[in-house]
Amino acid sequence: MSNHSFVLDPEQGAAARVGDTLQLTGPEAHHAVVVKRVQPGERLDLLDGTGLRLVVEVSSAAKELLTVTVLERNQEQPPEHPATLIQALSKGDRDLQAVESAVELGVFTVRPWQADRSIVRWNAAKADKALAKWRAQVRSAQKQSRRTFEPGVKELVTSKSLAAAISAHAAAGDLVLVLHEQAQDSVTQAVSGWLPAAAPGTGVVLVVGPEGGISDAELEAFVAAGARPALLGRHVLRASTAGPAALVLVRHLLGEL
């Protein structure tokens, strides 16, 4: 098994075949050579973010330039039922903690949500910088967990636009679950009931509220749009742990773990 993973440009990966020599430059090469100090003879994983994994052997490592030989080429398929995490903005970077863990645990898409009770607020000037931070966190977690697919990070939604997004997900056949402590049905019951008739490509969307919880008005709007409240367990989890915990359960129920 290789020791480290690095991101490969999709175009470069598409053309690569076993036996080819590739040269990596830019930030990834710098990180490999200067930070990770990879040496000739080491094996690495190169990931293009769209399912391709190249297992390579380092031929030479110079400053800002990494030369490798392709040993294996593996193209993975996306999950039959991809999972999405819609995470409310939370203080203390707990939202980022949730995203990082979710990526390591197999989430396919993440989306920030500015809930009514979110203490953290993204104004227009802050949104671009904050989204860039989320994307950097996703890529870092992808490399750390050696995932071939880089999860997508969608634009920020408000509660109103989230209701519209839920309606679109439901219309497409996705199962949208709002984690809520007063829900009657469990996540297990909801997923188990949906899965037998689920079409390939449809997924499970998990909506996680902020520290102060989801308001009654938000819950009502989300249910009207096609979401289902779902209970994760007897204990109330932090905003940073609820999504990842639900994700593990969902992927287990989907047969992916």
TrEMBL record:
Location of the Ribosomal RNA small subunit methyltransferase E PUA-like domain: 24-71
Keywords for this protein: Cytoplasm, Methyltransferase, rRNA processing, S-adenosyl-L-methionine, Transferase
UniProt catalytic activity: uridine(1498) in 16S rRNA + S-adenosyl-L-methionine = N(3)-methyluridine(1498) in 16S rRNA + S-adenosyl-L-homocysteine + H(+)
Superkingdom of this protein's organism: Bacteria
Key word Transferase present: yes
GO MF, any single term: methyltransferase activity
The keyword Plastid is annotated on this UniProt entry: no
SUPFAM superfamilies: alpha/beta knot (SSF75217), PUA domain-like (SSF88697)
Name of the protein in its database record: Ribosomal RNA small subunit methyltransferase E
Gene source species: Glutamicibacter protophormiae
Phylogenetic placement of the source organism: Bacteria, Bacillati, Actinomycetota, Actinomycetes, Micrococcales
